[in-house]
Specification:
Length: 214
């Protein structure tokens, strides 16, 4: 049931960052809003945060998304679109930074392995050695280990993420078992926030872990 008056925007933007926390949206409308953000950001906005965008671009985005999602008319100034886009742009910028760091690390380890095929790259050895108390890493990152085998076996295959998992401390069967045994929220936090996987990659890996446990 729709309100006869606009739903006012929250006092703080942090209360409008997540689609699931917006009052008055059905599950279908929540998904429509989620699905509308990435293409709109790609079409109208640059790689920065909300405050780094050109005002005319933000205005065009707000006008277009209100036409695409008429249910936003029940909100004052269509604030859910702005709040959720603010969060999307911030997370996208963080993930892009992590991807650039991983790419630079991959290039460094590739050069190292070319110089000495018989030993693991020194940079990756140091990364694995700093895994924290209780993490005794003995896996050679250049070999086809259980983590790489697992990632290659899922559909679609994601063997290129092996170095990401190894850097994150997932280096053998025991660590995969531990990851698979985490609660959904903990798994998502580790895969999305700690490893920097995108939403699709995280979902595929979670399903593969659940199948692997059976």
């Amino acid at each position: 049931m729709r309100c006869n008056y606009p739903i006012p925007r929250p006092v703080h933007w942090k209360d409008s960052r997540f689609v699931s926390s917006i009052p008055g949206l059905s599950a279908e409308e929540q998904q429509e809003l989620r699905d509308a953000l990435p293409p709109a950001a790609q079409k109208h906005l640059n790689g920065g945060t909300w405050s780094m965008q050109m005002p005319e671009k933000l205005e065009t985005f707000m006008e277009e998304i209100q036409l695409k999602l008429p249910f936003l008319a029940q909100y004052e100034d269509a604030w859910p679109a702005e709040g959720c886009m603010r969060q999307y742009l911030m997370k996208r910028r963080e993930l892009e930074g992590r991807r650039r760091k991983r790419a630079a690390f991959a290039r460094a380890t590739s050069r190292s392995s070319q110089r000495d095929e018989s030993s693991a790259p020194e940079a990756l050895k140091k990364s694995l050695g700093s895994g924290g108390p209780g993490l005794n890493v003995t896996v050679n990152p250049l070999s086809t280990g259980p983590v790489q085998t697992f990632l290659q076996s899922i559909c679609p295959a994601m063997g290129e993420l092996t170095i990401v998992f190894v850097q994150g401390g997932i280096v053998d069967e025991a660590h995969l078992d531990q990851l698979g045994g985490l609660q959904k929220a903990e798994q998502l936090q580790f895969l999305r926030n700690d490893l920097g996987l995108n939403a699709f990659q995280a979902r595929v890996v979670r399903l593969a872990l659940a199948t692997r446990k059976k």
